[in-house]
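Homework help board

Subject: predicted structure for assignment chain

Our instructor gave us this sequence and asked us to write out the predicted structure in token form, then describe one feature. I got the tokens but I'm not sure how to describe them. Can anyone check?
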Amino acid sequence: MMRQLTALDAQFLHAESPTTTAHVAGVAIVDPARAPSGAITARTLAALLRRRIHLAPALRMRLAEVPFGLDLPYWTEDPGFDPAEHVYETTLPAPELLTDVVARIHERRLDRDRPLWEMHLIHGLSGGRVAIYTKVHHCAIDGVSGAEALAAVLDLAPEGREPAPAEPAEPVTAPGPLTMLAGAAMRSVTHPVRALDSLRRTAADLDAVPVAATLPGARWVARAARLLGGEPDVPALPPLDVPRTPLTGPVSGQRRFAYGSLPLAELRRVGRAFGMSVNDVVMALCASALRTWLRERDALPERPLIAAVPVGARRRGSGEPGNRISAMAVPIATDVADPLRRLLATKSAMAAAKRRFASSPATWLSDLSTILPPPVTALATAPVFRLAGMAFPPINLIVSNVPGPRFPLYLCGGRVEAYYPMSVVTDLSGGLSVTCFSYDGSLCFGLLACPRHVDDVWRLFGHLRAALTELTALAGPPPVPGERAKVRVPA
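My token output:
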């Protein structure tokens, strides 16, 4: 069975440069007290992975490049694959913090000659706990498949489980060089047709595409393209003008990381009080925190910041490598001084974006990736990203929220206390990404930043915590057990 990367998958490969990595990651904090030996080692981790790796097939595959880069790479199973070769073990060197070590590992690109992931077991945390940092290239997984890969090595109880043996399946293999070149030649001939189709769909979504949406006539062009394509009209979006802030612009190769958890019950209480989802409340928290952070630097713009919000389109349990994602560009009300009106403005913007996405799921992220031929895209992506980051930044930051389990999980018998996700920062998306993962009653935040743009990322997490305190005060006291929560209606 052959499986080729999509143009969007390959875009994550092409975006990498000396200053940009394109892997997603997470840090699990684990208490090994209930593990069989009272400890977790690289050997026990490797043994667990050997028993479970068939549950995460994307982790067994490596890239097979097409000669001369004439076409998109293929996936192929690594015949000599051994999970132990991807597991590393270290102890925190005093006086370094866990975040310093994790940020330094996150700065390093993955080796493309083998399956694109690593796992680092880090000892030296307080109370005998350990941290397990795992990174996987974004060309191989998205948020949903990443959570499924994580679940493959986790258990519902310290005793663990023995998964069902792998069912026989046709191996994923890459074609030979001549077959690759023949396929590349055929696709190069048909590429103009596919590119025109992608341009047509992009034109219909022009008012939802960052930067393009701000061009004169973008809304008229999008509406005309939908009418010509026989598509119904769709709800309008708010303006997507991106203000210049310290967050925008090309990034350096260094990273800073901060993490922390907020009580999920408090976010849900705010959501119930104002008729919002948890994700809407997260966006409001980010708006408040960033407003405070920008005011401290005398850099608060008059227009709202524009955040990219990834949206998953994958069927759960598919197990296939690659990405099934789109994105919504959403204004967050950093320009509104009053906390309640800021919350409601963010709610309104999110509702408009979701109405639009529900009536016309955006495909522009994938379509833009397919317009140019693969050889041109491979050479042009990184320079174009850097130039656009300097001249026309399309967004101010990325905010992503991945739902997780509401109950505790165990790894090698140790209880997972928290899981802090990490995403990417790029020249195009700016120097900050905020990623959330709900787990066992908490919302775990991972803040990744380039120090050229955000040199005090821990302070930014403090502002998120303060923003939640502010919003829970607006929501009023918790409802009495047995009574229904009342939705706040502002005057």
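Reply (TA_rk): Your tokens look well-formed. For the description, you could write something like this. The chain has two domains: 3-162, 235-404+418-475. That's the kind of observation they're looking for.
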